Amino acid sequence: MAKHVAVLMGGWSSERPVSLNSGKGCADALEVAGYRVTRVDVQRDVAEVLARLKPDVAFNALHGPFGEDGCIQGVLEILKIPYTHSGVLASALAMNKARAKDVMAAAGIPIAESVLMHRLEVAKAHPMTPPYVVKPVAEGSSFGVLIVREGALHPPQQLFAEDWAFGDTVMVERFIGGRELTCGVMGDEALDIIELVTADGGWYDYDAKYSDNGARHVIPAPLLPDVYQSIRNLSVRAHRALGCRGISRADFRYDDRPDGTGRLVCLEVNTQPGMTATSLVPDMARHAGMSFPELVSWMVEDASCGR
Fold first, then answer.
1. Which CATH number fits domain 114-174: 3.90.1520, 3.30.160, 3.30.1490, 3.90.1720?
2. Which residues carry a binding-site annotation for Mg(2+)?
3. Catalytic positions (predicted)?
4. Closest Cα to residue 272, out of 140, 100, 161, 177?
């Protein structure tokens, strides 16, 4: 009998639309691969729903708070339902960008200078000389990210907004110019590296991530062999340092401009990479000769509890 897979999607974070898109694509591919699939739009009663369904595996296609910060992972551990992607600790750790950077730095992974601050304090005066980036400490898909360019007269005034929805604690991080690169890890093996080139030459924001023709995925990224291998090695090291399992994706900036600093830094590790038609890990898998149904099947067979 085919395994019964509950595909968890939706939820209530800012990334709900992305999660619904990811979940539909994964559910469709799992059905093509021969699994019995139940699509679950996650609400607050998810524990009761899953206890009633009794799936063999939960495919976690949630994004953002509750879905990738250790919360749903804890629910699945209590219910003893094997699930895809990382466990409770790695999920919680990677979701908190500041804590994840502490762990990566201790593992010898190069990171950008940063500081945690209350958003209202940041809004009053530059916390560091521009250029710098202001990031919510525990959001994904570039929600709430603000770039302060060189020569800016004041910090981003959006931080004063009463309807700011991304938490009061933000991370202020030194902006690293140059190229945007990302590398997936599958199991304990690095996939190939993608360079992200946006249609308008800007940064890789929400629209560039999820709109058609928002960005080109250049794979393999045109890098010198030693740089290419260094990024792959750092991606695996970050995956292991944070305790990830299954699939993760590490994002980098590399400043190889003629007048640049030459710096390579790891920005963050994503334990729940997007799985939409425009997402990066599916592109890396295709480049490695793996179809989308094969990729999601591997993830289901890799699912587990307690690690």
1. 3.30.1490
2. 251, 268, 270
3. 15, 141, 279
4. 140
